Amino acid sequence: MKRLVDNELIFGRLLAIDQPHLIARYNKALKAFGLPQTARAAFRIDMTGFSPEIAEDLGDIQYLDPNGVNRRFVILTPEQENLPVVHTQFSNTAGLMHEFFDGNRRAVHAVTIKDALFGEIEDPIEVVTGVEDLLSIDEVRFRVMSAENMLGKAAELRALIDRLQTSKNGWRDDDLLNRMVELSRETGDIRQNALVPDKLVFSQKSYWANHFGGVFIFRDERTTTVICDSHAPGFKRSRPWEVSYIDIADRTRIFDYLSKSGRLQLPRASWVEPSGFFAHRAEMAVDDLIRRVDPAVDLAGTDRVWLQTWMHRNAALIAEEGVYPFLQEAMREVASTGQIKMSEIRADRRLLLCRAVPDHPDQWLINRLLARLAPFDFLSRFVFDKQGFYTAYEDYSESYRAHVVDVLGTTYLNNKAALRSRLYGLEGYQDDA
To answer: Nearest 5 degrees, angle CA 321-CA 325-CA 328?
Structure first.
């Protein structure tokens, strides 16, 4: 993974924590979680407070994600809102953190001047044993504490203020008044500074969970659809009266569901041609074929002439594998007729020609699923399915790893927003993309 780290393709855009008072607050959060404190003089964190350096020291990359649920978080500074989430078991962790920052902006800014916020994103379950456990998560609650007990002190001061205002003899109680002065020196005027977060419950909509090989849960107005490995515990048995189940290997049913639910953008010249989406996938398909046939080939040192020569020499293999000629024919069909009749396309290849509807609320989740089903397209997988990308990367040869890093560096990291807009029609950014 060193090559990925060096090129900021993993653990990139993190915030350096090197101030003693912030490290002390982080250590108090670790202690509260029952974890050893760090002796490091500096480390980096993501939006949730996850640190790859702390994870390495603890020998536990799941130290903020025990059992894969009830995600822990540590907020040292409001700056974390603009960081990515680099390790998570749920696709919407970043979205939930954004909602927390948005709903409690004043409190986060006020508390982190003198303190740190930490706690858990509480799910209604303690451990995931089957699909039913994931289906039961329809909302989450943020349980929030503070390293210097600023929240507790603010709550105590609020109670004393209420007591003073309702008691006839409060002004004569020197102990009460002295305690209020003592607390206000630490908290400031809580009538002006909102120190206690008040928006703590958030709904859990469509999402992906990194359990049982990956579970996609799509929630519509009246139905819920689960797409995962059919061997996952609870598949077709949990709430069968209200949940539809699709095996992730059943591309026909996946295509039917995504297209009929308005989530899939079918191939039309209006977006296919300006995006270069088919050409991109064709290039990825050839690269992957070369990787499998000639794993020692250094693609970083090749050019178009070499590639064309290789393709001519391996024309029979390319035809047999089929993806490249299929995409070439799709490009010709779109150029000629402006569209493709999906009913005439092999069921197992229809999804290769589609992308998520760009303005659909589930656009990132849909593209994650599509990237998962086209593993040869490592660029799409890196953008939408980082966990899957990192797993696949481990099996690449050293020469192909160098090629992958080179392609991602020159085509994606160079201008993420522009590439996402062109290939996938997506605007804005995603925190882990």
So the answer is: 150
Return the number of other C-beta atoms located less than 10 Å from residue 200's C-beta: 17
Q: Which helix (H) or strand (E) holds 243?
A: strand 243-247
Collect all residues with Cβ–Cβ distance below 8 Å to 296 and sequence separation of at least 6. 397, 399
- pLDDT given at position 190: 47
C-alpha closest to that of 185 among 112, 105, 114, 104? 114
pTM: predicted TM-score of the whole model, two decimal places: 0.88
Instruction: Tell me which residue of 85, 73, 81 sits closest to 116, measured CA to CA.
Output: 73
Using the structure block, give the residue that is written with the tokens 């992730």: 248
Q: What residues have CB less than 8 Å from 12, skipping those under 6 apart?
A: 84, 86
CA distance 92 to 75: 18
Q: How many alpha carbons lie under 13 Å from residue 363 in its C-beta half-sphere? A: 16
pLDDT at 433 (0 to 100): 44
Instruction: Assess contact for 306 and 299: CB atoms under 8 A.
Output: no
| pLDDT given at position 173 | 74
- Tell me the C-alpha distance between 291 and 308, whole Å: 16
Report pLDDT digits (tens) over 366-408.
999 999 999 999 999 999 999 999 999 999 999 999 999 999 9
Please answer whether residues 246 and 223 qualify as being in contact, where contact means their C-beta atoms are separated by less than 8 angstroms: no
Alpha-carbon distance of 175 to 297, in angstroms, equals 79
